[in-house]
Structures are given as C-alpha cells and as structure tokens.
Design brief:
The protein is of the alpha/beta class and 337 residues long. The protein has helices spanning 25-28, 37-47, 68-83, 101-109, 124-129, 136-148, 166-178, 196-202, 211-227, 241-244, 258-276, 289-293, 298-307; strands at residues 6-10, 55-59, 89-94, 112-120, 152-157, 183-186, 191-192, 232-235, 249-251, 281-284, 311-314, 322-325, 328-331. Helix content is 40%, strand content 18%. It binds iron/sulfur cluster. Iron/sulfur cluster binds at residues 13, 16, 19-20, 23, 25, 61-62, 95, 118.
Length: 337
C-alpha cells in the first residue's frame, strides 16, 4: 500500500458521545482546543506543498459524529485543497458505531479515501470495561459499508485494556485480520493522566502491561499481521512533549520509539534462532542495522554474550528485513526456518 505523507488536523474529542476510559486526546494530540477551519485553511495554504500526493487527516475525535455543518466545513476545506492539487486525498478517524450507509456515501463523495476505525478490542467484556459503547460486530459492519464505497479502512487495536490479557490481544488481532483491513495501528494501553484508567490504576484495580511484555506481545502481533499480509503502520502512541516528558504518562508501556523496540525484538529472536544452530556470520541490508543491533546496542551485546562473537556485514544487494547466513536467506518475520 502507498505510504503517502499524512498532514494531521487534531479535533480533540470532537463528536465523541462520551469519554472512553483510556482516552486523553488533549495529551496525546497535544492540542488543547478545537482548531478553527478558516485559520487552519490559511495555515495549510502556507505549509502544504504546492503540489502533493499527501492526505489531510482529521484525527482525535469521532469525525462522523460531529454536527453535520461542522463535518461539512472541514470536508469543504479539504475539497478546496484537493481541487488545488495541494493534497491527493482526505482521511478521517471515527468510531465503528458511527458509520451508516449514508455516512459512508457522504464521505466517499467528499473525497475521503481512508477511514481509521477505533476498534481497540473485539472482546465484549473488554469493550464494556473500556467504556467504548459499541460491539466488535460494529467494526465489521462499518468496514463493509466503507469498503463498499471504495474507502480504505484501517483498524486500531489496544492490547492491555482492563480485563484483557495476551489471549485477548491475539484473539482481537485474529478477528481484525479476518476482516482484511487495509492496515492496522496497534497501541498498547498506557495510563494517561486525568483518565478513568488512572483512577483504576490508583485504586489498584488495573495494572498495565510492562514495557518488555508489550514489546514481546507486539512482536508476536506484528509477525502474525505480516503473515496475513496486513501492514501495521504504527505501534504505540505518537511521541510528543507531553508523553516524552512523562507529564502525561502515569504508568504503562509508553516509549517514543516503540515500533523500533518491536522490530529489534524480532531481529533478536531471528538471529538467536540461527546462532543456536551454529551460524555466526550474517549479512543484511545496511538500513536494517540499527534495528538489528537494538537501542544502545542491546541486541548486539546480548547476542554476543550468549552466542558470540557474531559478525555482521552490510550489503545493499540484500532485501530489507532479510538476513543471510551461509548462503541461506531468512525473513525477519518467519518463526521457524
Ligand atoms: S477513544 Fe475515540 S471515541 Fe473514545 S473518547 Fe477518545 S477519541 Fe472519543
């Protein structure tokens, strides 16, 4: 799938019928108030490329539950930028239960090419405890309605919500993969300040995943998504000052480079498997080297401690996410060969 630039406009909690237990858009989007469409348009005219294939995205709330007049304002703003060739498509995020046939038709007519649906889980009890207010079936229904209008659909999952465990995360992933979405975003649950989850955590009723556990689970999920040919376009919350400073994070597996931790974990497992069979010389694409070695060279050191010394050579002739040893090529994502 294409990886166009995304220009996000955050509309924190706009349209949301209630506050989900884990959600603090003001902290995760670092936008404290709703932007004004006219001001936003002027800013975009200055900042967008004169001609571009990027997508303007309306994130941070439940777009299709905004008052229709507000949706129209934003979509018209997008249509003007589309007509001027400044962007190539529009993208929105919304709740699975906020898509009807009429809404799907309206979005397609307005040039919306992609909709991101916050599924979070397919387990009814986990959804209930998270205060989502919709079922897993709503996600399947919304996806079908949007796809019938030619709109690409991405699904969001949140491992580690109250009442969830590894089994729930993998079950929800399987349910999501079975729907064949165009992509996934996977955000392990982090306890953010001011949320209902913070109260549960403070009272001892909720314990988030540790960072190592979330990385291990993420590695398993990424391997399965790859096996199903579904891209995971992001793991973990997008870094910002609120999150990186710790001011917004009460507890849980937040890391500004969470996706890299997962890729490094997969490389660790891949190389360890080969080293156990006696391989000690590896060739790989230079762009993979940072992930192979891991942050602070953690993989490099640990693999050498266990199996070393191991030797690595870079070659641009190799494909990304492939490692060669003794003339045999191995994919990063295969578990056994
Ligand atoms: S998770 Fe989505 S629906 Fe729930 S409060 Fe946040 S933005 Fe609104």
């Amino acid at each position: 799938m294409s990886r166009r630039s995304i220009y996000p406009i955050f509309l924190p909690h706009a349209g949301c019928p209630h506050r989900c237990i884990f959600c603090a858009q003001v902290l995760t989007s670092a936008c404290i108030c709703l932007p004004d469409p006219a001001v936003t348009f002027e800013t975009l005219l200055v900042s967008l490329p004169q001609s571009g294939d990027g997508e303007l995205a309306f994130y941070g709330g439940s777009f299709t539950l905004l008052a229709e007049i507000e949706q129209q304002r934003w979509l018209e703003l997008g249509a003007r930028l589309l007509a001027a060739g400044r962007i190539a498509a529009l993208r929105i995020s919304t709740r699975p239960d906020a898509v009807t046939p009429a809404i799907a038709r309206r979005l397609a007519a307005a040039g919306v090419a992609t909709v991101e649906l916050g599924c979070q889980s397919f387990d009814p009890e986990v959804l209930r405890r998270a205060g989502r207010g919709h079922s897993g079936a709503a996600a399947a229904q919304a996806l079908l309605l949007l796809r019938a209008e030619g709109i690409a659909v991405g699904l969001h999952l949140m491992p580690g919500l109250p009442g969830a465990d590894v089994g729930e995360a993998l079950h929800s992933l399987e349910m999501a993969l079975a729907l064949q979405p165009d992509f996934l975003r996977i955000h392990p649950t982090v306890v953010l300040r001011g949320t209902g989850l913070e109260k549960l955590y403070d009272s001892g009723e909720y314990q988030p995943l540790s960072l190592p556990a979330a990385v291990q689970l993420g590695a398993t999920m990424l391997r399965r998504a790859r096996a199903a040919n579904i891209p995971v376009i992001r793991f973990g919350l997008m870094a910002n000052e609120n999150l990186d400073s710790g001011a917004a994070v009460v507890a849980g597996p937040y890391h500004p480079a969470f996706g890299q931790l997962i890729r490094s974990r997969l490389w660790f497992e891949r190389i360890a498997l080969l080293a156990e069979r006696g391989c000690c010389f590896f060739r790989l694409h230079p762009a993979d080297l940072a992930d192979v070695f891991g942050q602070h060279r953690s993989n490099f050191k640990e693999l050498n401690n266990r199996y070393g010394p191991l030797t690595y050579e870079c070659s641009e002739t190799l494909s990304r996410e492939t490692i060669e040893s003794a003339g045999v090529f191995y994919s990063l994502f295969s578990e056994k060969d």
